[in-house]
Design goal:
mainly beta; Immunoglobulin-like; 2 domains; 5-stranded antiparallel sheet; 2 helices; 3% helix; 40% strand; elongated
């Protein structure tokens, strides 16, 4: 029997015995194929951020591991009342070709990350979403919509909370994520591949905001959550618009 080099890596000795006729040791070999190890990796974000001189901000389209919160884009928030970011992921399995999962459905979902401040000494409150999608323009009132800059195959709206896309021939798929444009509104995005047992968390997104301390009269301080771009997330001051 011919055993390829790839398969030899996974063979083990199941048993051995000595032949009474030839006095030679006979070994039986069991071939263990490697299991499919599924990966759902974020690989790109859009749009690209521009600085005050209209130059691309280095690294603004590169995803980082959870719990890093990637800033979302607010385009004329007083008009369309939405913040968004587009995300591309790669769906692949070790030892398989790029198109191994082509045609499979990916289901997108999100969970809130903003924890409201509670009273001192009391248990922490549950995470919530800030604001409402209902105030956005009609075509952006869902948590997930078809992306504009990143390519996606087979986008389907399931409900306000869920959507699906299809893995393309290169093993990629993409989505647009929408959140109410309220400072520090944040979400963890999860995906589940058709046939897999559970969803996988892939990235955290957050609406930018800064805390402004305003020293009021007689030493009283007021805190204001400003809805404007911020230098947090280690990104320079930017104009949040696509290139």
């Amino acid at each position: 029997m011919v055993i390829t080099a790839a398969r030899i890596l996974y063979r083990t000795i199941a048993s051995s015995s000595t032949s009474p006729v030839s006095n030679k040791v006979r070994k039986e070999v069991r071939i263990d194929r490697p299991r499919d190890v599924l990966h759902l990796d974020p690989v790109a974000l859009a749009p690209q951020f521009l600085d005050e001189d209209e130059r691309p901000v280095e690294g603004s389209t590169e995803p980082h591991a959870i719990p890093y919160k990637h800033p979302m884009v607010k385009v004329v928030p007083h008009t369309n009342r939405i913040a968004h970011r587009e995300l591309k992921i790669r769906v692949w399995s070790e030892g398989r070709p790029d198109n191994h999962h082509q045609g499979k459905t990916v289901t997108w979902s999100m969970a809130p990350l903003f924890v409201p401040p509670g009273e001192e000494g009391q248990p922490a409150l549950d995470p919530v979403f800030r604001g409402s999608w209902a105030h956005a323009v009609a075509e952006q009132r869902d948590r997930f919509t078809a992306p504009d800059e990143l390519s996606a195959v087979g986008f389907t709206r399931l409900s306000q909370e869920y959507a699906t896309t299809t893995v393309d021939e290169t093993g990629h798929t993409a989505i647009r994520v929408n959140l109410a444009p309220v400072a520090f509104n944040a979400a963890r995005i999860s995906v589940q591949l058709e046939g897999s047992a559970a969803a996988v968390d892939v990235i955290d997104l957050e609406v930018p905001g800064i805390i402004v301390i305003d020293p009021g009269h007689w030493g009283v301080h007021k805190t204001n959550l400003a809805l404007r771009p911020t230098t947090q997330h280690r990104i320079p001051a930017v104009s949040l618009r696509s290139s």
